[in-house]
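Summary for the lay section of the report: proteins are chains of building blocks that fold into shapes. Here we show the chain for V8-like Glu-specific endopeptidase and then a coded description of the shape we predicted for it.
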Amino acid sequence: MNRAVKRLVTLASALALSLITVPATPSAAAPGAYWTPERMRAAVPLDLPTAPLSALRSTVLTGEPTTVAPLAFPNGGSAWTGGGAVVRTAGRVFFTYQGRNASCSGNAVTSANKSTVVTAGHCVKLDGAYHTNVAFVPAYDNGNAPYGTWTARATFATPQWHASEDINYDIGAIVVGQLNGQSLTDVVGAQGIAFNLPKADNTYAFGYPAAAPYDGTKLVYCSGRTFNAFLSNGIGMTCDMTGGASGGPWFRAFSEATGTGTVNSVNSYKINLFPNWMFGPYFGADAQNLYNQAQAA
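The coded shape description reads as follows.
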């Protein structure tokens, strides 16, 4: 993971780059068939990047505050004992990276195509190449896919992540195809998403950490107040989730009663000196452009 982080460079102009859309690479078998329960259980968690201080900069552009209201379907939970909609909208992201099966986390969000999953940039592209066999499994439960395995038909990353894997813009999106004639959020519901909002807020982070001491079988959460990430435009919070949690949603205005909230960042990286802190990218103008590109696909 450090190879990618060490190659980070400052972009001359974020606005000069357009969003990149990369179709999910086809394999011999469709990802929905490829990801058997055995392969899901054996998938290696993708490590959380460790960012050197030199890679963190205050460069994220902002625009007008924008919020898309949530669309939720309450449901019971598993390891997240609060239950509610998050149990269905959150899930594991599976893919093949450098010849090995790996995993991250993601969350279905309100979108025009009813098929958009928000995750981290390194969960769709890493070390210069986009992942293959990409699939989203909402409500994953120890190899079981109660709402099916949703095959990606396109993956997206911010232009900064596409160009240089800049940790400050570690944001990705997955657009999944229909399953049994239905769209993703018609089946599992969707959470709201927000951009260009103040950074400090009471926040809940979710994911499927699979590196020790976790095993990837359960939806795990952290909660607390976010703080400004020093030396960058990201945000941080106290959280000990590990690899595999990458890409999991950060919610503001989260209701424990309904399991609904507004996605405002994702699990992204940690700093060696502060292992009990998790950092996420600020959802500014580039994140909003990425979301709009994905929901239009």
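Put simply, here is one thing we learned. The longest helix spans residues 285-295.
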